[in-house]
Amino acid sequence: MYDHKISATDKLTLYRDLAAALEALVAGEPDGVANMANAAALIWDTLPDLNWAGFYRNIDSELVLGPFQGRAACIRIPFGKGVCGTAALTRTVQRVYDVHAFPGHIACDAASNSELVVPIVRDGLLIAVLDLDSPSTGRFDAEDEAGCVALSGILARAI
Ligand code: SME
Predict the structure, then answer these.
(1) Average of per-residue pLDDT across 83-107
(2) From the CB of 84, is ligand 1 less than 6 Å away?
(3) What pTM value is reported for the model?
(4) Where are the alpha helices (DSSP H) in 27-127?
(5) What percentage of residues in the chain have a pLDDT greater than 90?
(6) Where does residue 61 rank: exposed (0-12), middle (13-18), buried (19+ CB within 10 A)?
(7) Given a cut of 90, is residue 69 above it in pLDDT?
(8) What are the distances in angstroms from CA 93 to CA 37, 107, 119?
(9) Rounded to an integer, what distance in angstroms lies between the CA atom of residue 112 and that of residue 96?
(10) Which residues partner with 142 through β-bridges?
């Protein structure tokens, strides 16, 4: 049984504990799908106020849905479209305070109001993006961004 109950109250500790739990969870496992699935579950369990947490993979320069937690979502997203496609095309983190103000935002779940998308890059190649959605406007701050960038570094070697 994996029991990674993380109960830190400050974000710095929360993300440090989450990163340590993720490292432990993927250690020695070469299967990327298994590692993405467990990562999505761990993030979903640990971070409050999310309605979606998961991955879109770069398959021949198109984003294709990967393992996630939350409601069924759009399967394919072209590079450059929506928040995920913008993160993939520009390889920059997209931290969106209000998704309804983001041009071209793809509303997979009407409950989403803010979003954080982090590119996962290995050896100069975009492998996937990590996508977190929240029902709360402005849910993600700079600490969430830094914490998720750290997670993407671990994932870059594990997926
Ligand atoms: N809202 C995203 C699409 C993916 S879902 O949030 C799961 C976007 O605009 O890229």
Answers:
(1) 96
(2) yes
(3) 0.95
(4) 32-46, 82-90
(5) 89
(6) exposed
(7) yes
(8) 21, 19, 6
(9) 11
(10) none
